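Lab notebook, design round three. We kept the backbone fixed and only want residue identities now. Task for the bench partner: fill in a sequence for the structure below.
Input structure tokens:
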């Protein structure tokens, strides 16, 4: 696509020194070369990031964010709430970078900045959930417990491996809960250890390349994991196998829909793109093509 007239790069000042050096030394030169003007905005908190994103959207014809899944979550929440938002470019510099993986955005900052500055636009879906928005996933059960149980020291030391370690520990301690779902008017009563509503296809770097999952198809994918048995865990990790279909699953239910309501007997925390700030019940609605995303050329 053509170069940008005025692009804005938002980055988190609290990222490590090595990350900030990489953003400035590896990403900025590519963005500057493709923009008549490039504005850099440093933020110190999620609130500042959200406010800066909303302000920048009024004057930018391309908005880049350097950060992890939480930063991308904030940007998607802001941009999907306004009319005619500028294209979003994700420069992955977090631990898992799951939606970047979904969209095949390179995980090295120089490659990501270069490919996006010369990339193309793709309309992708977002989803509303109660008063919020998510881009990649919303989940209850084991996934929220695993996020809460992550040891910050392990996360700093082992990065994405810490999510796997926490998930394994949480699986051994997980308990079944009753969940009622309504998906496009069809009701389901299930027992589960985990319910996921996915727009993307990667969680904790675990890729789900099932052919049904497409963040631009106007549908959300619902996974109900019915136990934490070894067979269910093995099946969970088998979801990364190409050509797997819902008919191949024995311990996991896979459904699709546009309007999804989730109810539990007692309120349960909901993880949205790695952020936990709401509880069930949840009303989820897909927003087809709501976000213009910069992606590498195919």
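Proposed sequence:
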């Amino acid at each position: 696509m053509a170069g940008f007239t005025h692009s804005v790069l938002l980055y988190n000042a609290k990222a490590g020194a090595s990350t900030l050096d990489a953003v400035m030394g590896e990403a900025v030169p590519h963005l500057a070369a493709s923009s008549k003007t490039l504005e850099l905005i440093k933020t110190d908190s999620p609130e500042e990031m959200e406010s800066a994103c909303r302000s920048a959207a009024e004057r930018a014809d391309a908005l880049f964010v350097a950060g992890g899944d939480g930063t991308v979550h904030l940007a998607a929440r802001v941009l999907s709430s306004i009319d005619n938002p500028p294209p979003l470019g994700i420069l992955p510099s977090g631990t898992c970078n799951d939606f970047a993986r979904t969209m095949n955005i390179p995980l090295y900052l120089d490659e990501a900045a270069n490919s996006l500055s010369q990339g193309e636009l793709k309309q992708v879906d977002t989803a509303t959930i109660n008063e919020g928005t998510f881009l990649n996933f919303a989940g209850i059960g084991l996934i929220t417990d695993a996020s809460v149980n992550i040891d910050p020291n392990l996360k700093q030391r082992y990065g994405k491996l810490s999510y796997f370690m926490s998930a394994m520990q949480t699986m051994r301690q997980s308990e079944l809960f009753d969940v009622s779902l309504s998906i496009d008017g069809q009701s389901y009563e299930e027992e589960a250890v985990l319910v996921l509503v996915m727009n993307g296809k990667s969680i904790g770097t675990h890729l789900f390349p099932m052919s049904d999952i497409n963040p631009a198809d106007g549908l959300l994918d619902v996974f109900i994991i019915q136990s934490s048995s070894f067979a269910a865990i093995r099946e969970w990790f088998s979801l990364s196998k190409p050509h797997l279909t819902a008919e191949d699953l024995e311990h996991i239910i896979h459904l699709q829909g546009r309007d999804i309501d989730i109810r539990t007997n007692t309120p349960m925390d909901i993880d949205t793109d790695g952020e936990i700030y709401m509880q069930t019940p949840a009303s989820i609605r897909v927003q087809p093509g709501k976000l213009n995303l910069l992606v590498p050329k195919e």
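Keep this in mind before ordering anything: The radius of gyration is 19 Å.
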